[in-house]
């Protein structure tokens, strides 16, 4: 089988060139051309402009033999994790040849990818690398050879240009800016079949696809810090900005909040998608562990390695955390005896000491002062208090809480000296 993986939102002449290249290979091999089409959310975590059904129809009319949906990944995982899953599925499906477009040669792609293959980690590929997503795909394909003893053959064609790169983003923007009519100059970039389908979908009111802003705004307006902490891809800083920015009534105010939290556009889209679908950290953890067990997620990107890195960085003194993090990744440092349970003291009033009891569970969160705190509900009342921990454990816990996908469980326990919180870091 010959595979292409894309959003195709909408199918333009650059995509047609990919399909034409796949058809050329098909004439020699007799294999069918399959499009692995993202469904639900785009690879960049946004809702689609054009529906899956319409994009599927566009792909088939452009010459594909089959369209295979990829769904459930892009509102849960970054590309560093979703790409290995997608490539593994393609290899398991029998894809032998893979077609993509880039402005760098296969030799250059191979050269750039060697570093990431050697490190066995596909997180943080520098933005200044040309066609970095193609480089990630190439590197992951090489990594998975160890598991499958086979890999896809890459066929790279030049990206199509008309006075600049043809971009689905530019096409979508031009249609939106033109009161939902396709400008004549944009039609030059589109096959006739795409134009016909787009015009039909616009007339039916199916374009553009939109987010469920009611659910997003409701959750951002009403959820406590503890409940927001359970949602994937929300850091303590982001959660405090969400609370500070209430009340939300439009998408621009939502985006402004994540800009204040220093989120980039891609992470912002992922965080908003996670809020929209109420993706919990426990859900992401389970998904990642399932693929770890299958040998698809690289060991250096495993949940345990993320926890180890947090403990390692917390134990380094005298150097910036960013340097310690870089050293950990580049040197593949092994860390033993990483604590998965911590015990924190509580600052309780006399009244709170009377109503709290052994075995109660609580929600951890970062309070407005940046301190780690807990909320416990008992007898219809809420107890909110900061935790007392050694500085090293505070740093460790904060790194874990900001890891995007590692959940924490907390339970009140009674000791000889009063009550403490047992904090469990979930790695399975």
Structure characteristics:
428 residues, alpha/beta, 11 strands, five-stranded parallel sheet, six-stranded antiparallel barrel, 19 helices
In terms of topology, how is this protein built?
Elements: E1 2-6, H1 13-29, E2 33-38, H2 52-61, E3 66-70, H3 79-93, E4 97-101, H4 106-119, H5 132-143, H6 145-148, E5 153-157, H7 168-177, H8 184-187, H9 192-204, H10 213-222, H11 225-229, H12 236-244, H13 251-260, H14 265-277, H15 281-293, H16 303-315, H17 321-331, E6 341-346, H18 350-355, E7 361-366, E8 372-378, E9 381-388, H19 391-401, E10 408-415, E11 418-425
Helix pairs in contact: 2-9, 3-5, 4-5, 16-17, 16-19
What would you note in describing this structure?
The protein has helices at residues 13-29, 52-61, 79-93, 106-119, 132-143, 145-148, 168-177, 184-187, 192-204, 213-222, 225-229, 236-244, 251-260, 265-277, 281-293, 303-315, 321-331, 350-355, 391-401, and strands spanning 2-6, 33-38, 66-70, 97-101, 153-157, 341-346, 361-366, 372-378, 381-388, 408-415, 418-425. The chain is an alpha/beta fold and 428 residues long. Helix 2 links the parallel strand 2 and strand 3 (66-70). Helix 2 packs antiparallel against helix 9 and helix 3 (79-93) crosses helix 5. Helices cover 47% and strands 16% of the residues. It has 19 helices and 11 strands. It has a 6-stranded antiparallel barrel.
Widest sheet: strand ordering: 6-9-8-7-10-11
What is the string of SSEs from the N terminus onward? EHEHEHEHHHEHHHHHHHHHHHEHEEEHEE
Mean pLDDT: 93
The percent range for strand residues is: 15-25%
Low-confidence stretches: none
Largest sheet, if any?
6 strands, antiparallel, barrel
Provide the structure class: alpha/beta
- DSSP strand count: 11
The rounded Rg comes to 24 Å
Q: How helical, in percent, are the residues? A: 40-55%
